[in-house]
Amino acid sequence: MWRFSPRLIRSSRWTSTFARPESSTTRALPSLSVLLSSHKSHHQQDESHKLLVSFLGMAMASCGIILGWNTRQPCLEEAADDDTTTKILNWSGTHSVLVPNDSYWEPESIAEVEAIVQKCHAQGRSVRPVGSALSPNGLAFEAQGMMSMAHLDSVVKVDTVNRTVTAQAGARVSQVIEALRPHNLTLPNLASIAEQQMGGFVQVGAHGTGKAIAPVDHYVTKLKIVTPSQGMIELTSQDEDDELFHLTKVGLGCLGIVVEVTMQCIPAHDLVEHTFVLTRQQAREQRDELLEKHKHMRYMWIPFEDAVVVVTNDPEETLPQSVPRQTSAPLSTKQLFQPLTDLLLTLSQEYADNSTTTTTTYTKETIEGMGFGELRDALLAFDPLNVDHVKRVNKAEAEFWRNSEGYQTKPSDQLLQFDCGGQQWVWEVCFPTGSQERNNGNDMDFMEELLAGIERDNIPAPAPIEQRWSASSSSYMSPAYSRDPQGLHSWVGIIHYLPSDEEWQRRAITESFTGKYCDLMRKIGQQYSATSHWAKLEIPKSIFQVADLRLFMQSRFPVALFNETRARMDPKSILSNRTVDMAFGKPGHRQ
Fold it and tell me: Which ranges carry the FAD-binding PCMH-type domain (predicted)?
């Protein structure tokens, strides 16, 4: 019922097998200002102002008219009524792009990719690669030209001796897992959504959770990419120029179009999942023990509630028989959802006579069969920006999770990939929190400050705020990159759902999230050198924020090397877009 794939529309007909039906009132929503500025001294502020002057013109050209940014992008439906354009909408419903059909390619072979890239390079035409369009920020979108990788979806080879799998970039993660299953193998790490394509899975630095588990890009052993200037090249960690390999693993699609990925595998295994609820103090006190004891562990913090949902996963064969494999007497679905359904019926009655709202009226019959995500959306839709209302919803959700405490055992892919909710704004950051040997406490301090700020400022923050952990990545552009291979990193994601198709409500939610909520996390993140997940980095509303972002990027990533490599591989910048140029500048330009 909840499926998160891109929606592609060519006029009124569907162009992709993984598309979902489009509402007749689909809207393009405003850009999200969720960018991190550095914590600046007076000297740094002076440098920021100098930098601002130096690239003001370039930034305005590459990022659109940022000063006085129009917070509502134009509606695209009218222009999409003919047969000349393709419209793509990302899974979270927050970004869309309209591409001329003669600049939207769907190659079916690597040879076709090479031919298209060669032609576009000769003509200086944009050709930005796109996978499943899962990135909440529409990172792959470029109105001047795009290439869908969906038809390059073959699993090329499973090497059981070396435990590797080679797949084309458009192969979905779920496809690769199924191809590995007969060989008793699986991928070493999984993000939450199975419909990701392998190219995007790697290029944006997707991650799961686990103290000793790096983001997925770390496990890549070979890449085959098509570049504008050098044609097709293969990169491995054994290359003389392994620097290029480690830079390209998280290349954001702008060093070359990834057409094949080879990744390490591990033996397939069942996981025993344990879900339980702790208090905030218990979560802080038990964090080290839980991270050390469990292969996978994540926290889901519930604002305004002294409740932290803990989900751990461990290979079944590593656990003693005393650990339950299945909850012996689980609650029925009706009992499980009762805190949510009771509140939904109560709210439906309370709002029934309120002529200022257009909410749906629910009955016991109409809510039957609704899942968790649907119930939460329905609850929030009544008044999503009323902090007292959100508190009631969060309280019911905390009770739902207490009802859900218990164990289950399934194949690893069925537990590590889960429902992320419906249309939503989301921002996730990553920051170092010590080493494998010693957590320095940044992770818990960050969460304590974030929750205190939410509750102090009465921000209508729905649940959950998800916190995950990872080891360091060897990829230079990964948010979790560290020179210390024993590093430990925490990832924290805030969210605001878009539970209704009402345009006024969606606009109000967007303004609330991009304003007060993200401003709070940005301010806190400055102290911890927190950097955005690449799929959640948005174009800012202010040229001053662009200047701050550029300074931060230079302090956190090898921007000069990245830009020099972009200039070498893609001298005409046909693989880029304004988000990439906004963050790093144009290829070849030292920022």
Answer: 96-268
Peptide bond just before 479 cis, omega within 30 deg: no
Q: What are phi and psi of 26, to 5 degrees?
A: -60, 135
416-425: average pLDDT: 76
pTM of the predicted model as reported, rounded to 2 decimal places: 0.85
Are 172 and 301 found together in one domain? no
Which residues 6+ apart lie within 8 Å of 70 measured at CB?
30
Say if CB 198 and CB 180 are below 8 A apart. no
Q: Which amino acid is at 481?
A: Y
What are the pLDDT digits (tens) for 5-42?
333 333 322 233 223 333 333 323 233 333 333 334 44
- Domain interval for residue 281: 270-329+406-534
> Which DSSP state fits 513?
I
Closest listed residue to residue 548, CA positions, set 1, 152, 37: 37
Tokens of residue 194, six digits: 């199975």
Both tokens of residue 285?
A: 């006190």
Q: How many domains does the chain have?
A: 2
Kindly state the greatest CA–CA separation across the chain: 72
What does residue 185 show for φ and ψ, rounded to 5 degrees? Answer: -125, 165
Report pLDDT for 237: 85
CB 481 within 8 A of CB 501: no
Can you tell me the distance from the alpha carbon of 11 to that of 9, in angstroms, rounded to the nearest whole number? 6
Distance between CA atoms of residues 76 and 418, nearest Å = 32
**pLDDT tens figures, 476-524:** 999 999 989 999 999 999 999 999 888 899 999 999 998 899 999 999 9
pLDDT band at 194 (very low <50, low <70, confident <90, very high): low
Distance CA 196, CA 130 (A): 11
Q: What are the DSSP calls for 526-586, one per residue? A: HTTT-EE-GGG----S-HHHHHHHHHHHHHHS-HHHHHHHHHHH-TT-TT--HHHHHHH-S
Which 8-state DSSP code applies to residue 79?
A: G
Half-sphere exposure of 193 (CA within 13 A, CB side): 22
Which pLDDT tens digit goes with each residue over 330-370? 889 999 999 999 999 999 999 887 655 556 889 999 999 99
Contact in structure between 201 and 177 (CB atoms under 8 Å): no
| pLDDT tens sequence across 514-525 | 889 999 999 999
What is the DSSP code string of 137-205? T-TT--TT-EEE-TT---EEEEETTTTEEEEETTSBHHHHHHHHGGGTEE-S---S-TT-BHHHHHHTT
> Residue 26, class by beta-carbon neighbours within 10 Å (0-12 exposed, 13-18 middle, 19+ buried)?
middle
Q: Are 217 and 253 in the same domain? A: yes
Angle (deg, nearest 10), helices 372-381 and 387-403: 160
> How far from 551 is each of 31, 364, 418, 546, CA to CA, in Å?
21, 55, 36, 9
User: Which CATH number fits the domain that encloses residue 439?
Assistant: 3.40.462.10
Print the SS3 string covering 392-433.
HHHHHHHHHHHHCCEEEEEEHHHHHCCCCCCCEEEEEEEEEE
Helix (H) or strand (E) holding 471: strand 465-471
Q: Give the pair of three-digit tokens for residue 435.
A: 């080493």
Residue found under tokens 């839980």: 290
From 506, 534, 562, give the residue that closes a domain: 534
Q: Give strand pairing partners of 497.
A: 424
